[in-house]
Amino acid sequence: MITDNSTPPTTALAARQLLRAHRYGALSTLSKKFDGHPFGSITPYLVDHDGSLLILISALAEHTKNIQHDPRVSLITHNQEDPHIQTQGRLTVVGTASLDPERAAIGKRYLRYFPEAHTYYDMPDFQFYRIVPLALRYIGGFGDIHWIKADRYHVPANTLAAEEDALLGQLNAGRPPGQGMLIGIDCDGYDLRLDGRTIRHDFLTPVPDGSQALALLKS
Question: What residues are paired with 188 via a beta bridge?
């Protein structure tokens, strides 16, 4: 039983922001070969607009075989800018993974974040799997430790998924190269690609639509 009645909404937001700010984590699956023993691997991930995680993995990979046998997974990520491993923010997502058939639609956004993935994205054995969170273990720092149930982590209603492409086109048009390029906008913030790095900028509170996101970005 997960009890998180004392978890404030700001903690769920902080958990989403930490998850969105980073690009890889340690994925744990249940080994088919070794009768359910935990099997860990490093994988890039992208947080979708709805808060679920997208991973691009090969059918030949051990973790993919494990997921196909048992979809229960967890993924842990951490503040990769902070060298103090014991006191930094970190987050474990406990959920289920399944093949997502919308490969082309997902790929368009995924490849903005991971342009180096073009090579293996074109290989037919690589497919997208979506991890839907059931619960999250969030550690914001020393003593700041919470279980967060999926309904509290749930992204508030917004229209950014439908509006993102148009917003990016508008904001990147005529943008000087030295200022980087916007690659993603969601209700919690936006991502900028600059000098080969992805830089995350959070909104103070979630935004419901493109017009409010645009106002914040132009302010």
Answer: none
* CA 32, chain centre distance (Å): 26
Q: State both tokens at 192.
A: 């900028």
CB 98 within 8 A of CB 130: yes
**Separation between Cα atoms, residue 93 and residue 120, nearest integer Å:** 26
DSSP 110: H
The angle, 0 to 180 degrees and rounded to 10, between the axes of the packed helices 210-218 and 160-172 is 30
Domains and CATH numbers, the chain: 9-153 (2.30.110.10), 160-218 (3.20.180.10)
**pLDDT digits 0-9 by tens, 75-133:** 999 877 777 777 778 999 999 999 999 999 999 999 999 999 999 999 999 999 999 99
Inter-CA distances, 119 with 98, 102, 116, 123, Å:
23, 19, 7, 7
The residue among 56, 172, 156, 71 whose CA lies nearest residue 109 is 56
The 8-class DSSP code of residue 117 comes to G
Longest dimension (CA), the chain: 56
